[in-house]
Amino acid sequence: MNGILPLWKERGMTSHDCVFKLRKILKTKKVGHTGTLDPAVEGVLPICIGQATRIAEYLTDAGKTYEAVVSIGRTTTTEDAEGETVEEDLTYKSISRAMLLEALESLTGEIEQTPPMYSAVKVNGKRLYEYARKGQIVERPTRKVTIYALELLDDDQNFDGEEVTFRIRIACSKGTYIRTLAVQIGEKLGYPAHMASLVRTASGTFTEKECVTLKQVEEIMNEGKINDVLLPVEYALSPYPFIEVDEANEKQILNGQVLPIHALLKEHDKIVYSIQHRAYAVYTQHPTKEGFMKPEKMFPNN
């Protein structure tokens, strides 16, 4: 069994829970997820099975799209609705659409974020949430992420009240914390804030419309139709150019040899060599030999 299962992760489950259940349902051990989604978050979680686990990192590195509800008026320990209140401002607020759009615009592009204490980022070999659960606060590395688009989904011209909420859509790079982004939006507006809810609507090339739930996977498996929902490795590699193996380079590529660099690698960071349109090898620029390329991934049984 090889391929990518576009799973819709439901609220209340960890990404590891999904992998554990799928190993039982699919009766295979070679199952891996492509990026942690918090238990309170639902959404697109591509699952790699069999040989597809070799490209799990590509899917993890791909951009993501989310829809979130931001709540202005309160910050929490976890930066989302699950945490305890840290700071609260229940004064009556009147935030114009123009003010909100200006705040969103200022956070579009490359920005800096400090990961929340309740996160899986490692510091000195331990996850930050391990420190947080013991009440410890440690210095966290600030990192740069990219917000490709930040869109206000509500049509209101004014957002008024003691606790104001609004919906946004975010297209972003890997490593972006939407919880932290919600806090940053609040800071731009001059108020404490947190993320009230979150849904991941896309992960790389995978969208909600292709996804199935765990219950549906179990039903499909019982009907013997699992291949109807498994997407091939090629689907995940579709952002990269495909080059069909020919007689001139067949032997070298099948043996995974270092080759003179292909012209397409000047425009793309990866190229895919295929046999009858099935991916066989992913090549990238050689890190030390200028003018050459090397295989990064091989799929001999694809």
From TrEMBL:
Catalytic activity entry: uridine(55) in tRNA = pseudouridine(55) in tRNA
Keyword Iron: no
Active-site residues per Swiss-Prot or TrEMBL entry: D38
Pfam families the UniProt entry points to: TruB_C_2, TruB_N
Keywords: Isomerase, tRNA processing
Gene Ontology MF terms: tRNA pseudouridine(55) synthase activity
Domain Pseudouridine synthase II N-terminal residues, every copy: 23-178
CDD domains assigned: PseudoU_synth_EcTruB
InterPro entries named among the record's database cross-references: PsdUridine_synth_cat_dom_sf, PsdUridine_synth_N, tRNA_psdUridine_synth_TruB, TruB_C
Task performed by this protein: Responsible for synthesis of pseudouridine from uracil-55 in the psi GC loop of transfer RNAs.
Name of this chain's protein: tRNA pseudouridine synthase B
Designated gene of the protein: truB
